[in-house]
């Protein structure tokens, strides 16, 4: 995906990471509403929510990293993106895909 945007130094990739961080901070600002909606869905029959709603809500709240400022949250999220981009498994899948397309 990164290569499709022109690589990690391209303008498109930079915009992508900026938009991702903005979206993350917007979601963090609405964390109370999101958590309330999820708590109302505890009886909805969704397996992940119904099994242990308190634990699930706590996990979701932890993902929002409400203990961080917006700037710190942006740096945290950029770290997640960079970790994901440099992960070994997606690189392996890309390599296999390239090999498979060359064999056709």
From TrEMBL:
GO terms for molecular function: 1-phosphatidylinositol-3-kinase activity. Keywords: Kinase, Transferase. SUPFAM superfamilies: Protein kinase-like (PK-like). GO terms for cellular component: endosome; peroxisome; phagophore assembly site; phosphatidylinositol 3-kinase complex, class III, type I; phosphatidylinositol 3-kinase complex, class III, type II. Residues 1-89 form the PI3K/PI4K catalytic domain. GO terms for biological process: autophagosome assembly; endocytosis; phosphatidylinositol-mediated signaling. The keyword Kinase applies. It comes from the Eukaryota. PROSITE patterns: PI3_4_KINASE_3. InterPro entries: Kinase-like_dom_sf (IPR011009), PI3/4_kinase (IPR015433), PI3/4_kinase_cat_dom (IPR000403), PI3/4_kinase_cat_sf (IPR036940). This is PI3K/PI4K catalytic domain-containing protein. It comes from Phytophthora nicotianae (Potato buckeye rot agent).
